[in-house]
Amino acid sequence: MALIIETGAGVTGANSYADLVFAASYHTALGNEDWVGSDADLTHALIVACRALEQLYGSDLKSALSSAAQERLFPRKWFTDNLGRIVQTGTIPACWKEAQCEIALMLLQEKDVFPTAADGAIKSQSITVGEYSESTEYHVPVQKEKHAGFRRVELLLAPILNKKPSGWRLRA
Questions:
Q1: Rounded to an integer, what distance in angstroms lies between the CA atom of residue 86 and that of residue 69?
Q2: Which residues on neighbouring strands pair with residue 98, listed in sequence order?
Q3: 20 to 30 Å CA-CA from 30: which of 67, 86, 133, 138?
Q4: First and final CA of the chain: distance in angstroms?
Q5: 137 in Cβ contact with 122 (< 8 Å)
Q6: For the segment 58-94, what is each residue's pLDDT rounded down to a tens digit?
Q7: Which residues contact 164 (CB under 8 A, 6 or more apart)?
Q8: pTM listed for this prediction
Q9: Is 72 in contact with 12 (CB distance < 8 Å)?
Q10: What is the DSSP letter of 47?
């Protein structure tokens, strides 16, 4: 399958925000030596990463879709990010494309990119069958990620999400 890049114009059939050149430049700049494979493998990783990114973080994005008919979650109506910068309608924030590249790399490293939400371990649980009742108490979660193993992705996305990851500060 070929990459069809969403440019911010509501491209029909778009399946990625980042192209192979952007992803290669991003990973080279960070020294990510695991970003290797055939064009087909890298393309597949970007397409799956795009879907994972949207499914995991789409509901937390600031602003609304530019058009109800668009296929991807960007472009969005203009908004001010958590650092006070204006994100114009018709643009794809670099952090969104970088997060896609991070998730694509995780795929190449054979990590699960569709994890369950990070919860704390169960501290106590009680179940009663007659007159049904249920009670579960969790320890305070140690990790602060919404999804276990996605800290880098969540730090990248923090400026454009409605809620900042707890315990993390954004600095301009």
A1: 24
A2: none
A3: 86
A4: 39
A5: yes
A6: 999 999 999 888 999 999 999 999 999 999 999 999 9
A7: 82, 158, 170
A8: 0.81
A9: no
A10: H
